[in-house]
């Protein structure tokens, strides 16, 4: 969430949309559109969002636009290992 991205925030931060994509992959959703159209619609699951410390999830189209707009440098920065501090 601390990676700087050149994209604007409208409702959901671009960093949150990247996290949502990761959660969708971990959930085994085979297609990006399954975030919104699968029988278990991730973008409507407030329990999962809260578990990932998010207020909510974006529609699959917003996630796709965010991923498409990433620069190579931003994508590499997202993929870098980070140390995490525990509260």
What is the share of helical residues?
Answer: 40-55%
Radius of gyration: 13 Å
Using DSSP, what is the number of strands? 0
Strand residue percentage: under 5%
Which word captures the global form? globular
Write the layout of secondary structure elements.
Layout lengths: L13 H13 L7 H4 L8 H6 L8 H10 L2 H7 L9
How is this structure best described in words?
With 87 residues, this protein is mostly helical. It has one domain (14-77). Helices cover 46% and strands 0% of the residues. The protein contains five helices and no strands. Helix 1 (14-26) packs across helix 4 (60-69). The chain is globular. The mean pLDDT is 88.
Give a short overview.
The chain has 87 residues and is an all-alpha fold.
Q: Could you list some keywords that capture this structure?
A:
46% helix, globular, mainly alpha, 5 helices, 87 residues
